[in-house]
Amino acid sequence: MWVGLLTILAGSVTAMATPRWRGGPNLSRSPVMGFAVDPLAASALSRGERSFLERAAELSSKQMEMARVAVSRATSSDVRTYAQLLAADHRQISDSLNGLRRKKGTMLDETPAVESTDEDPLSAMVGGDFDREFVRRATEAEAKTLMLFEELMSDAKDTDVRELIGTCLPMLREHRNRGTELKKGLE
What are the angstrom distances between the C-alpha of 16 and each of 7, 13, 24, 25, 72? Predict the structure, then answer.
């Protein structure tokens, strides 16, 4: 008798925990880092938020790669220090963006494609010419990235996206300001 009652109760609990409606919560395990991914989470983001996450990850990845090159090639210690700051901060920004992209189910590639620096005229430059061109490009890239983040800040509805933007904005503003000062000093 007790076995039959326990079987009925166990079946009831299982039935109550399983949604009976179509399209109910269907969390599945993501193959990446074991996050639980809600397939409907990506649709919760606006088109602008999804586009922002993709574009910001691409820009950050490019800036990180350019900064890595400058760390080894810059002749000025100030430029090298700036490049190290950019490389470290954009690694952090990139990791945060990719984590949020995974969480929201919008990540198609692990890492956005980065253009090769071998074909870039910057890779052929040396000395002060390299330093000036790197700082000019880095400052322009930071301004573009900062504008992307600031534009979405006023439009973003998703709290995770807004939180990420709020965390990154001070870093990006510091990058722009330091780059502008460095650029003046190199002219």
Answer: 14, 5, 13, 13, 61
